[in-house]
Amino acid sequence: MADEVLIERDGDIVTVTLNRPDRLNALTWTMWEGVRDAFASLEAQDDVRCIVLRGAGDKAFAPGADIAEFAALRSNFGQARAYGRLMHGTMRGVAESRHPTVALIQGICVGGGLEVAMLCDIRVCGEGSRFGVPINRIGVTMGYPEIAALIKLVGRQTALEILLEGRIFGAAEAKEKGLVSRVVPDAQVVEEAYAAARRIAAGAPLVNRWHKKFARRLEDPRPLDAKEFDEPYETFDTDDFHRGYQSFLKKEVPGFGGR
Question: Has residue 155 been placed in a domain?
Fold first, then answer.
Protein backbone atom coordinates (compact mmCIF):
# COMPACT_ATOMS: atom_id res chain seq x y z
CA MET A 1 0.00 0.00 0.00
CA ALA A 2 2.81 2.41 0.84
CA ASP A 3 4.27 1.95 -2.65
CA GLU A 4 0.96 2.37 -4.48
CA VAL A 5 0.01 5.68 -2.84
CA LEU A 6 2.81 8.12 -2.12
CA ILE A 7 2.65 11.13 0.18
CA GLU A 8 5.26 13.81 -0.41
CA ARG A 9 5.53 17.20 1.23
CA ASP A 10 7.07 20.43 0.00
CA GLY A 11 6.57 23.00 2.73
CA ASP A 12 2.84 23.49 3.22
CA ILE A 13 1.84 21.71 0.00
CA VAL A 14 1.32 17.94 0.09
CA THR A 15 1.20 15.70 -2.97
CA VAL A 16 -0.74 12.43 -2.88
CA THR A 17 0.28 10.27 -5.85
CA LEU A 18 -1.49 7.23 -7.31
CA ASN A 19 1.62 5.19 -8.00
CA ARG A 20 1.14 2.31 -10.45
CA PRO A 21 2.56 3.83 -13.62
CA ASP A 22 3.10 0.39 -15.18
CA ARG A 23 -0.71 -0.08 -15.05
CA LEU A 24 -1.54 3.58 -15.79
CA ASN A 25 -2.35 3.93 -12.07
CA ALA A 26 -5.36 1.62 -12.28
CA LEU A 27 -7.01 1.69 -8.86
CA THR A 28 -6.76 -1.33 -6.58
CA TRP A 29 -8.37 -2.06 -3.23
CA THR A 30 -5.15 -1.09 -1.45
CA MET A 31 -4.96 2.17 -3.39
CA TRP A 32 -8.47 3.13 -2.30
CA GLU A 33 -7.33 2.39 1.26
CA GLY A 34 -4.14 4.35 0.73
CA VAL A 35 -5.90 7.48 -0.52
CA ARG A 36 -8.45 7.21 2.28
CA ASP A 37 -5.73 6.92 4.92
CA ALA A 38 -3.64 9.70 3.37
CA PHE A 39 -6.49 12.19 3.47
CA ALA A 40 -7.47 11.11 6.99
CA SER A 41 -3.94 11.71 8.26
CA LEU A 42 -3.67 15.09 6.53
CA GLU A 43 -7.02 16.25 7.89
CA ALA A 44 -5.57 16.68 11.37
CA GLN A 45 -2.51 18.65 10.22
CA ASP A 46 -3.07 22.38 10.59
CA ASP A 47 0.10 23.28 8.71
CA VAL A 48 -1.16 21.77 5.44
CA ARG A 49 -2.29 24.53 3.07
CA CYS A 50 -3.10 22.54 -0.08
CA ILE A 51 -3.22 18.92 -1.29
CA VAL A 52 -2.34 18.03 -4.88
CA LEU A 53 -3.76 14.68 -6.07
CA ARG A 54 -2.13 13.18 -9.15
CA GLY A 55 -1.14 10.00 -10.94
CA ALA A 56 2.46 8.87 -11.39
CA GLY A 57 3.96 9.60 -14.80
CA ASP A 58 2.44 11.66 -17.58
CA LYS A 59 0.27 9.07 -19.32
CA ALA A 60 -2.61 8.82 -16.86
CA PHE A 61 -4.22 10.18 -13.74
CA ALA A 62 -6.05 6.84 -13.49
CA PRO A 63 -8.08 4.75 -15.95
CA GLY A 64 -10.45 3.54 -13.25
CA ALA A 65 -10.50 0.32 -11.28
CA ASP A 66 -8.10 -2.53 -11.97
CA ILE A 67 -10.40 -4.98 -13.75
CA ALA A 68 -8.02 -7.81 -12.84
CA GLU A 69 -9.30 -7.57 -9.25
CA PHE A 70 -12.94 -8.15 -10.17
CA ALA A 71 -12.82 -11.94 -10.08
CA ALA A 72 -11.46 -12.00 -6.53
CA LEU A 73 -12.91 -8.83 -5.01
CA ARG A 74 -15.98 -7.72 -6.99
CA SER A 75 -17.56 -10.84 -8.43
CA ASN A 76 -20.89 -10.76 -6.55
CA PHE A 77 -23.27 -8.51 -4.63
CA GLY A 78 -21.58 -8.91 -1.24
CA GLN A 79 -18.10 -8.24 -2.55
CA ALA A 80 -19.27 -5.32 -4.66
CA ARG A 81 -21.02 -3.74 -1.68
CA ALA A 82 -17.88 -4.03 0.47
CA TYR A 83 -15.76 -2.57 -2.33
CA GLY A 84 -18.28 0.23 -2.85
CA ARG A 85 -18.25 1.14 0.82
CA LEU A 86 -14.47 1.42 0.71
CA MET A 87 -14.64 3.59 -2.42
CA HIS A 88 -17.30 5.82 -0.95
CA GLY A 89 -15.37 6.28 2.28
CA THR A 90 -12.32 7.32 0.27
CA MET A 91 -14.31 9.67 -1.94
CA ARG A 92 -15.97 11.22 1.09
CA GLY A 93 -12.55 11.90 2.58
CA VAL A 94 -11.46 13.71 -0.58
CA ALA A 95 -14.71 15.62 -1.00
CA GLU A 96 -14.93 16.71 2.64
CA SER A 97 -11.27 17.55 3.18
CA ARG A 98 -11.00 20.88 4.98
CA HIS A 99 -7.81 21.57 3.05
CA PRO A 100 -8.06 22.94 -0.51
CA THR A 101 -7.40 20.26 -3.13
CA VAL A 102 -6.07 20.38 -6.68
CA ALA A 103 -6.30 17.46 -9.12
CA LEU A 104 -3.31 17.39 -11.47
CA ILE A 105 -4.56 15.47 -14.50
CA GLN A 106 -2.27 14.17 -17.23
CA GLY A 107 -3.44 11.74 -19.87
CA ILE A 108 -6.25 9.33 -19.10
CA CYS A 109 -8.80 10.21 -16.40
CA VAL A 110 -11.60 7.69 -16.76
CA GLY A 111 -14.07 5.77 -14.60
CA GLY A 112 -12.99 5.65 -10.97
CA GLY A 113 -10.12 7.98 -11.77
CA LEU A 114 -12.55 10.65 -12.92
CA GLU A 115 -14.78 9.94 -9.93
CA VAL A 116 -11.93 10.82 -7.56
CA ALA A 117 -10.61 13.77 -9.55
CA MET A 118 -14.01 15.43 -9.81
CA LEU A 119 -14.19 15.65 -6.00
CA CYS A 120 -11.17 17.98 -5.84
CA ASP A 121 -11.79 21.72 -5.60
CA ILE A 122 -9.78 22.58 -8.71
CA ARG A 123 -8.96 20.28 -11.63
CA VAL A 124 -6.13 21.20 -14.00
CA CYS A 125 -5.57 19.03 -17.07
CA GLY A 126 -3.56 18.94 -20.28
CA GLU A 127 -4.93 19.42 -23.75
CA GLY A 128 -4.29 15.76 -24.49
CA SER A 129 -6.17 14.44 -21.46
CA ARG A 130 -9.08 12.08 -22.00
CA PHE A 131 -12.21 11.63 -19.89
CA GLY A 132 -15.28 9.43 -19.64
CA VAL A 133 -17.14 6.80 -17.63
CA PRO A 134 -17.52 3.79 -19.97
CA ILE A 135 -18.60 1.36 -17.25
CA ASN A 136 -21.75 0.30 -19.09
CA ARG A 137 -19.34 -1.49 -21.44
CA ILE A 138 -18.50 -3.95 -18.65
CA GLY A 139 -21.94 -4.17 -17.09
CA VAL A 140 -21.14 -2.11 -13.99
CA THR A 141 -23.22 0.69 -12.50
CA MET A 142 -22.02 3.86 -10.87
CA GLY A 143 -23.18 4.12 -7.25
CA TYR A 144 -25.48 6.79 -5.86
CA PRO A 145 -22.72 8.89 -4.21
CA GLU A 146 -20.71 9.05 -7.46
CA ILE A 147 -23.80 9.88 -9.55
CA ALA A 148 -24.74 12.60 -7.07
CA ALA A 149 -21.25 14.10 -7.30
CA LEU A 150 -21.34 13.98 -11.10
CA ILE A 151 -24.78 15.60 -11.28
CA LYS A 152 -23.66 18.29 -8.84
CA LEU A 153 -20.69 19.07 -11.06
CA VAL A 154 -22.20 18.96 -14.55
CA GLY A 155 -25.99 18.72 -14.14
CA ARG A 156 -28.38 15.81 -14.69
CA GLN A 157 -28.55 16.04 -18.47
CA THR A 158 -24.79 16.02 -18.99
CA ALA A 159 -24.27 13.38 -16.31
CA LEU A 160 -26.66 11.03 -18.10
CA GLU A 161 -25.01 11.79 -21.43
CA ILE A 162 -21.66 10.75 -19.98
CA LEU A 163 -23.05 7.59 -18.36
CA LEU A 164 -25.39 6.42 -21.12
CA GLU A 165 -23.03 6.94 -24.05
CA GLY A 166 -19.94 5.74 -22.20
CA ARG A 167 -17.91 7.82 -24.64
CA ILE A 168 -14.30 8.92 -24.15
CA PHE A 169 -13.85 12.61 -24.92
CA GLY A 170 -11.14 15.22 -24.87
CA ALA A 171 -10.07 18.03 -22.58
CA ALA A 172 -11.86 20.81 -24.45
CA GLU A 173 -15.18 19.00 -24.14
CA ALA A 174 -14.47 18.19 -20.50
CA LYS A 175 -13.96 21.92 -19.86
CA GLU A 176 -17.16 22.76 -21.71
CA LYS A 177 -19.08 20.23 -19.61
CA GLY A 178 -17.61 21.59 -16.36
CA LEU A 179 -15.60 18.48 -15.49
CA VAL A 180 -12.33 20.41 -15.32
CA SER A 181 -11.45 23.90 -14.16
CA ARG A 182 -8.53 24.64 -16.46
CA VAL A 183 -6.95 23.21 -19.63
CA VAL A 184 -3.31 23.99 -20.43
CA PRO A 185 -0.74 22.59 -22.88
CA ASP A 186 0.35 19.11 -21.81
CA ALA A 187 3.88 20.27 -21.03
CA GLN A 188 2.54 22.89 -18.61
CA VAL A 189 0.12 20.80 -16.51
CA VAL A 190 2.50 20.15 -13.63
CA GLU A 191 3.68 23.76 -13.56
CA GLU A 192 0.16 25.19 -13.62
CA ALA A 193 -1.25 22.78 -11.03
CA TYR A 194 1.50 23.59 -8.56
CA ALA A 195 1.23 27.29 -9.35
CA ALA A 196 -2.43 27.03 -8.36
CA ALA A 197 -1.44 25.17 -5.19
CA ARG A 198 1.09 27.87 -4.31
CA ARG A 199 -1.49 30.61 -4.86
CA ILE A 200 -3.84 28.78 -2.53
CA ALA A 201 -1.10 28.22 0.05
CA ALA A 202 -0.23 31.94 -0.01
CA GLY A 203 -3.73 32.83 1.18
CA ALA A 204 -4.99 32.77 4.74
CA PRO A 205 -5.53 29.06 5.51
CA LEU A 206 -8.39 29.68 7.94
CA VAL A 207 -10.21 31.68 5.27
CA ASN A 208 -9.72 28.94 2.68
CA ARG A 209 -11.10 26.34 5.10
CA TRP A 210 -14.02 28.56 6.02
CA HIS A 211 -14.87 29.10 2.35
CA LYS A 212 -14.92 25.34 1.77
CA LYS A 213 -17.11 24.87 4.84
CA PHE A 214 -19.53 27.61 3.80
CA ALA A 215 -19.82 26.30 0.24
CA ARG A 216 -20.58 22.81 1.56
CA ARG A 217 -23.16 24.15 4.01
CA LEU A 218 -24.97 26.04 1.26
CA GLU A 219 -25.64 22.71 -0.48
CA ASP A 220 -27.93 21.89 2.46
CA PRO A 221 -31.42 23.30 1.78
CA ARG A 222 -32.01 24.10 5.46
CA PRO A 223 -32.00 27.83 6.24
CA LEU A 224 -28.92 29.17 7.99
CA ASP A 225 -29.43 29.87 11.67
CA ALA A 226 -28.24 33.11 13.27
CA LYS A 227 -24.98 31.61 14.52
CA GLU A 228 -24.14 30.18 11.12
CA PHE A 229 -25.00 33.45 9.41
CA ASP A 230 -22.60 35.32 11.70
CA GLU A 231 -19.73 32.83 11.41
CA PRO A 232 -18.02 34.65 8.49
CA TYR A 233 -17.38 37.58 10.81
CA GLU A 234 -15.26 35.43 13.11
CA THR A 235 -12.36 35.96 10.73
CA PHE A 236 -12.06 39.52 12.06
CA ASP A 237 -10.93 38.11 15.41
CA THR A 238 -8.06 36.12 13.89
CA ASP A 239 -4.40 37.00 13.87
CA ASP A 240 -4.36 36.33 10.13
CA PHE A 241 -6.88 39.11 9.53
CA HIS A 242 -4.85 41.70 11.41
CA ARG A 243 -1.66 40.52 9.76
CA GLY A 244 -3.33 40.45 6.36
CA TYR A 245 -4.81 43.91 6.20
CA GLN A 246 -1.83 45.56 7.87
CA SER A 247 0.53 43.87 5.42
CA PHE A 248 -1.69 45.01 2.55
CA LEU A 249 -1.44 48.63 3.69
CA LYS A 250 2.34 48.27 4.04
CA LYS A 251 2.63 46.46 0.69
CA GLU A 252 4.26 43.51 2.43
CA VAL A 253 3.78 39.73 2.13
CA PRO A 254 1.62 38.77 5.14
CA GLY A 255 3.04 35.34 5.98
CA PHE A 256 -0.16 33.95 7.46
CA GLY A 257 0.20 31.71 10.50
CA GLY A 258 -3.22 30.07 10.48
CA ARG A 259 -4.30 31.61 13.76
Answer: yes
pLDDT grade for 255, boundaries at 50, 70 and 90: confident
Give the number of domains in the chain. 2
E-only strand ranges, 77-173: 101-105, 108-110, 122-126, 130-132, 169-170
Rounded to two decimals, the pTM is 0.93
CA–CA separation, 257 and 259 (whole Å): 6
Whether residues 229 and 182 fall in one domain? no
How far apart are the C-alpha atoms of 178 and 162, rounded to whole Å?
A: 12
* Interval 131-178: pLDDT, tens: 999 999 999 999 999 999 999 999 999 999 999 999 999 999 999 999
What residue numbers bound the domain in which 223 lies? 204-250
- Does residue 122 sit in the same domain as residue 13? yes
Closest Cα to residue 99, out of 190, 9, 232, 29? 9
